[in-house]
Design brief:
heterodimer, A: 413 residues, mainly alpha, Arc Repressor Mutant, subunit A, 3-stranded antiparallel sheet, B: 76 residues, 3 helices, 33% helix, elongated, nucleus (chain B), DSS1_SEM1 (chain B), proteasome (chain B), 26S proteasome complex subunit SEM1 (chain B), RNA binding (chain A)
Chain lengths: 413, 76
Amino acid sequence: MAGELNRIIMAFANAVEAKDGGKVAEFLQISKSQRIRERVGLILDRNPKIDLSHFCSIVDTAIITIGEALAVHFRAMQAYQRGCFVDAYTLLTQSSQAFLSEFRNQETMWPLDCIKVLVYDLRMVATRADKELAMQGKLPEKLTDAGRRMMSAFSTLTGTKAKRGATLSITCQLFKVYFKLNTVNLCRHLINTMEKPNFYDFNLWPASERVTYNYYTGRLEVLNDNFEMANKKLSYALAHCHRSHRSNIRIILMYLVPVKASTGVLPSYELLKAYHLYEYIDVVRAIRSGDVRLLKKALLRHEDRFLKAGVYLVLEKLETVVYRQIIKRIYLIQKQRDADKAHLLKLDVIHKAFKWLSVDIDFEEVECIMSTLIYKGYVKGYISHKNKVVVLKKEPAGGTSKDGPFPAIGANM
Amino acid sequence: MAAGDATESAQPAAETARVDVFEDDDEFEEFENEDWDEQEGEKEAVAQWEDDWDDDDVNDDFAQQLRAELDRVAES
């Protein structure tokens, strides 16, 4: 058994000697793969008196001292393997700190992959430790702690171009932490650093990190009400996401659908069906038809889910688009009856149509909705308060309603 | 889905049993591969987005119902 441990440590030492960062990183993985963790855990469980520091000291060379860090890291693996995640996290904070300070001081940046693995595990192990703490009725605080450690690792790697290679990976991991902890304002510092001119050529990052970065910054733009930027970022994430990763595509779409809908671009029914976004089917139908009641129903029915995902406010804004649509269709039907008078829309007729759709509002509110639509550029025309009528812009001969009172939805953005 | 919705407000326990979007673990997942050739990604089989839906057509079911209602209002 001890012989097997020795073989693992020798293989690790050889990878360090060869400066094979990818290989060394494989030995350090705690949560992603169980290959090393399981074996190390078993050996240490069966040999409780083993002098691990002594075994690991053979890793140390003139240029790198990580033997003791490895010993502690193995103990973290053992604790994780036993299901003691709080212990595993505490040990990992010690080992990762020692590893990171050695890794970042290497002459060449061969340990970049190792740094990524350690930062990833800080988040993953902290998350499991917090679950354990919560189950014991204690305060789950490890993820907050991990966030601080990850941020400090990030800060030490922004200096020279060579070291920056791990910064986007750490940024993505920190986005996940901050979104989970509801402290998204902390993302700002990371974005400011990553988007500094000449920091790093964005196209040179691995696709996984580019997609993840654009997904999270896109969601931040949604929160900031900046739909144009949100559309750009989320569309990038969608276009570059690995096609076989369907659950990530679906999550991107969860945010992209309402954002695009607000600019007048709707997902096809097939797209919603393909990614099981059934919650959006009625929302989209309501936008197409102008059925205000259907939108309200859909919002109410999935309220908790929409709120949790943080898209409720975006969807609520689509109400204006649906109002535009019902007004437009009243106009079109009126036009079929009497083209000459179609541009005169009685507030009373609109009021009654709303009532028919169970939208229980009084006459003044109808006027208010109409002024909002006109103010926001969804409808062209003016309200004649005295005559209680909306006077719409006339369609030019041979034109459509888009050339007249109802410009394209995205046109006013 | 329908059955789940009916008991939704009455039983908070049913929350965890729901298998649908907007779940708790609805987190953006790690990618298996770090990098991939984006040219290789096969084109989506389904039509994705429509920007020409907003036409002047008023013949669908909802528009027909609306027309009937507007007729009723005009007559009264």
